[in-house]
Specification:
Blueprint: H1 21-42, E1 51-55, E2 60-63, H2 65-84, H3 91-114, H4 118-144, H5 150-174, H6 178-182, H7 206-225, H8 233-244, H9 248-265, H10 269-295, H11 303-321, H12 332-338, H13 355-386, H14 392-411, H15 421-449, H16 452-464
Antiparallel strand pairs: 1-2
């Protein structure tokens, strides 16, 4: 009787020639897990140690230590996949590749439509290449990581985000305007905004720091919900760091992510006890929190909020003119100049809105493809948190992916966090781990309960069902 292959996964997961995949990986798989752990730890370096590569005159494009760590991860991952002589891909990969093809076509189309110069075309394609670069993390994860490796990888992320938050708290207290300390020659408001005592940590930006901390916080809260032992100081530290960012987008994203968590799992006694503890500590610190927020005008509509409204209005104007295929991926900074709008500062090269940016630059076609990709990630997460065969850590992983899908979309309405390399790296790792766990559970379930004929039919469905 033929034995079930690891390639026979859930019928909703499309697999490309993954026969004997894990047997061929051998000790190299263990090495890849260590490399992935190291890459997550290097995330802590953030925007420290930037090596200038080129500049548009308004915006610099540096090479970071983190970029080099990811490059090493991808190179070793590519070698591992070549040694296995197999590459596995799911429908998330199919949607991502479709998005890349559409985005590349839209950029090329922008040359005759908007008169892009060769340099402008190269810059726009370079940022698309960066998106592909970080997307490849997902391919490496689903091809080189096994189910048993997931706790170790999440532990490395825990260390990274806790160190990031702890340093941020120290920075908030003793190192105001930290970006100007690190880069004293930087142009105010063009390179880095002065942030006073707001927590920016090594990302040097309170909003992006808040999104990264939120990912770690939702992982801790999901673990508590699933009954996974969690030292209570960890979520308290992360919540305190989140408050110190004074980031309205991060707090709003936390609210919606929390609502999703409650919708998925309900309110357990464990979460209620933790919530009560946070509420007591919050009430005790409320006067200081209000005073801190007022210092940065975060309790009223300020110039920062009004600038976003102006940007959204411009984006709507351009989208109405180019709604099918958009203006071309990352051509916003060049196209808005054609409309007579002044491009000033780093933000002039992107539309704050996350999915709004995707819609403006790739049109409704690219927007639909990107949404499809996120939807398929969500289906993998849903399979995890609903599976009785999943461990508590795996169910927490599924809940974290689901809550942060909503959280990052909300967060990116106000700052383009959906496409920030640091956050893309973290999200692609989490999304890949969710697939790895869902695939392993589906394979084990099929091996235990499905007769050979059903397994054959499932395999045929996977290979011919399309992506």
């Amino acid at each position: 009787m033929p034995q079930p292959s690891s390639a026979r996964a859930h019928p909703r997961l499309h697999v490309i020639d993954a026969r004997h995949a894990w047997a061929a990986a051998g000790s190299l798989q263990v090495g890849m897990v260590r490399v992935l752990q190291a890459a997550l730890l290097v995330l802590v370096t953030g925007n420290l140690g930037r090596i200038p590569v080129f500049s548009t005159g308004v915006r610099d494009a540096p090479l970071l230590i983190n970029d080099m760590a990811v490059a090493a991860l991808l190179a070793l991952g590519g070698i591992a996949m070549l040694q296995r002589r197999a590459v596995e891909a799911d429908r998330v990969v199919a949607a991502a590749l479709a998005f890349v093809a559409l985005a590349g076509f839209s950029v090329v189309l922008a040359v005759p439509r908007h008169g892009l110069t060769g340099v402008e075309l190269a810059i726009s394609l370079a940022y698309l290449a960066r998106w592909v670069f970080y997307f490849c993390i997902y391919l490496v994860v689903i091809n080189t990581v096994g189910r048993a490796d997931i706790p170790r990888i999440l532990k490395a992320f825990d260390v990274a985000v806790l160190v990031f938050a702890a340093f941020g708290i120290v920075q908030s207290a003793f190192l105001p305007n930290f970006a100007q300390m690190v880069y004293p020659d930087a142009r105010l408001y063009l390179d880095w905004d002065p942030q006073g005592h707001r927590l920016v940590s090594t990302f040097l930006d309170p909003n992006f720091a808040g999104a990264f901390i939120l990912l770690g916080l939702m992982l801790q809260l999901s673990r508590i919900t699933c009954g996974v032992p969690v030292a209570r100081w960890k979520p308290i530290l992360l919540f305190a760091a989140l408050i110190l960012t004074a980031s309205r987008s991060s707090l709003l994203a936390f609210f919606f992510a929390g609502v999703v968590l409650v919708m998925i799992a309900g309110i357990s006694r464990r979460v209620l006890r933790f919530g009560a503890l946070v509420a007591v500590l919050g009430l005790l610190a409320l006067p200081q929190i209000i005073q801190f927020a007022q210092t940065f005008n975060k309790l009223q509509v300020d110039a920062s909020a009004l600038a976003r409204v102006v940007m959204w209005g411009r984006a709507l104007t351009i989208f109405s003119d180019h709604w099918i295929l958009g203006i071309g991926y990352n051509t916003w900074g060049f196209v808005q100049a054609r409309y007579g709008w002044e491009a000033a500062g780093v933000g002039s090269y992107g539309v704050e809105g996350g999915l709004f940016f995707v819609a403006v630059t790739t049109g409704v076609v690219g927007f639909a493809i990107y949404l499809t990709m996120l939807f398929r990630v969500g289906r993998n997460a849903r399979m995890l948190w609903r599976s009785p065969a999943a461990t508590g850590e795996e169910r927490a992983l599924g809940m974290t992916v689901a809550t942060m899908l909503v959280g990052i979309v909300i967060h990116s309405l106000f700052t383009n966090s959906l496409l920030l390399p640091f956050l893309m790296e973290s999200m692609w790792v989490f999304w890949g781990l969710a697939f790895v766990a869902a695939r392993a559970i589906a394979v084990e379930s099929a091996a235990m309960s499905s007769p050979p004929a059903a397994l054959i039919r499932a395999r045929v469905t996977q290979l011919s069902g399309g992506v």
